[in-house]
Design goal:
Helix content is 34%, strand content 20%. The protein is of the alpha+beta class and 491 residues long. The chain has three domains: 86 residues, no CATH class; 275 residues, no CATH class; 37 residues. The strands form five sheets. It has a seven-stranded antiparallel beta sheet with strand order 1-2-17-16-18-14-15. It has a five-stranded antiparallel beta sheet with strand order 3-22-6-19-20, with helices on one face. A five-stranded antiparallel beta sheet has the order 10-9-13-11-12, with no helix packed on it. Strand 9 and strand 10 form a beta hairpin. The longest helix has 50 residues. The radius of gyration is 38 Å and the shape is elongated.
Length: 491
């Protein structure tokens, strides 16, 4: 019996050892997964001291325009899997159609400070209150408090303050969809955001809300969920399918754009060259450009916000080179153009100059922006030092950051070995218990076989059976006979 138990223990030990080796091998393979495309290409420009938020990385790249000029591309990479990361829609504040400006609001307008009006609140409509569709659908509208024929706008700095009221952990503010804008010489204030507009889970655009452009079907859009790991997609509603609801219930932030730059990993040259579904002026040569893209995968991990600086030649085109840059250098599978030109603006918390304003072509005020929210930290946790130089030694010294990853991996291995050993101990105890029960059962069986060969044992079993099975029947009869015998004895 002892030898059998030892063999079983040996088999179980070997099995558990193989399982542990499999786990170790799986972890090693995971640790050796290739680094993302954007990191391989931009890592030298992702300066570590400029990374101030966990899950957000600021890098730069370069593109060649169609006339051969080199232009800088500012790249914000967002890790959608990182806890605490959110994409917020920052829309302007204004008056709805039921509000009438009071004296304080009028004074703010006199000082050209409409954002100081205490009656304004966040817009819950993409159109002005006097637009026909808004009135017919009983929508609130949203107006500039100083001129109800204008949709409200805000500067980049005001958008940053608005974003911090939503969440103080603002890492990035960038211009987004086409909409209202204001400069010192030009106004375009008839309406707000043009494409799909979902602000903190509430949709504000579409025919069901009096918005008559139907751009959620006409133009592509970016949609992002609320809680990490964030779900994100670039899509477009099929013609005739927009009934006013969000394209998916999980959408927390939705923002439109056009044209498509990349679709399913292919640069869409025809849509770029024709500025498909967008105002041709937005694709004009000689303008800076802004775009958003997603990496490959059903649940993409990387979101890219990019801004390409304005070329010096007004005949120089950026869009096609920018699309190729996003595909080849960032690994974007899908991308769309956002508002660019004079609207191009980017603020990044870790940018060491100009109070964080990375780029701003004009002092243009816009009706909406996008903000990236992230917790304090040191960027995206892929940093393993600069690209290694060829070394004569077969085993180069560890690069900065690898020791921590190795220790973390070893701790994980130790934890899994401990768990496996606990399982093994439990299994050994169960085997010992089963063997003890088996031994007892075997001994009882052997004793039974010995007993059935003894006639006296059969007699004992028969007596026992009669007592157990028939005693309850014969006992009353015996008692009656004893009573009757006692009566006869008295006589």
């Amino acid at each position: 019996m002892k030898s059998i138990m030892m063999k079983l223990i040996r088999v179980v030990t070997i099995t558990m050892g193989l399982l542990i080796l499999n786990v170790m091998n799986a972890r090693i393979v995971f640790a050796q997964e290739p680094l993302p495309v954007w990191w391989e290409n931009l890592r030298e420009s992702c300066i570590q001291q400029n990374q101030t938020r966990r899950g957000v990385e600021y890098c730069t790249g370069e593109i060649k325009t169609n006339l051969g000029e080199t232009r800088t591309v500012h790249v914000i990479v967002v890790d959608l899997y990182e806890s605490g990361v959110k994409i917020e829609y920052v829309i302007a504040w204004g008056l709805n159609k039921y509000a009438t400006p009071d004296a304080q609001c009028n004074q703010a307008c006199s000082n050209d400070q409409p954002h100081e009006c205490r009656q304004i609140s966040e817009c819950r409509d993409v159109n002005r209150s006097t637009k026909t569709g808004v009135a017919l659908n009983n929508r609130p509208g949203c107006d500039d408090p100083c001129n109800r024929n204008y949709y409200p706008v805000m500067s980049l700095e005001q958008a940053l303050n608005r974003a911090r009221r939503i969440n103080p952990n603002v890492a990035v503010v960038i211009d987004s969809d086409y909409g209202a804008y204001k400069t010192n010489t030009r106004y375009n204030r008839d309406h707000g955001p043009e494409g799909l507009t979902v602000v903190r889970g509430i949709r504000l655009d579409g025919r069901a809300f009096g918005d008559e452009d139907n751009n959620a079907e006409q133009r592509p859009w970016l949609a992002v969920s609320e809680t990490s790991p964030l779900n994100a997609m670039i899509g477009k509603l099929e013609s005739g399918t927009d009934i006013g609801r969000k394209p998916d219930d999980w959408i927390y932030t939705g923002v439109g754009g056009a044209p498509r730059l990349i679709q399913d990993g292919v640069v869409v040259e025809e849509e770029i060259n024709t500025c498909f579904r967008a105002d041709p002026a937005s694709c004009r040569p000689g303008a800076s450009q802004v775009a958003v893209g997603l990496s490959e995968g059903t649940n993409p991990r990387w979101l890219f916000l990019v801004l390409a600086e304005k070329p010096s030649n007004n005949r120089d085109q950026l869009l096609l080179p920018l699309a190729n840059f996003m595909k080849d250098k960032l690994g974007a599978k899908d991308a769309i153009k956002l508002d660019g030109g004079g609207s191009s603006q980017l603020w990044y918390e870790g940018y060491p100059e100009k109070n964080g304003v990375v780029y701003r072509e004009e002092q243009r005020m816009l009706s909406q922006y996008l903000a990236v929210i992230a917790q304090p930290g040191e960027g995206i946790q892929l940093r393993v030092g600069p690209a290694p130089e060829p070394a004569p030694e077969p085993t180069p010294p560890p690069q900065p950051g690898k020791l921590e990853r190795l220790l973390e991996w070893l701790r994980g291995i130790a934890q899994e070995i401990t768990q496996a050993w606990q399982v093994l101990q439990h299994l050994i105890q169960e085997i010992a218990r089963l063997l003890a029960e088996t031994r007892q059962n075997v001994e009882e069986l052997l004793q039974f076989l010995r007993n059935i060969q003894n006639p006296e044992w059969w007699v004992e079993q028969l007596e026992h059976w009669l007592v157990q099975c028939c005693g309850s029947i014969f006992l009353p009869m015996g008692a009656a006979l004893m009573v009757r015998a006692a009566k006869k004895h008295r006589r």
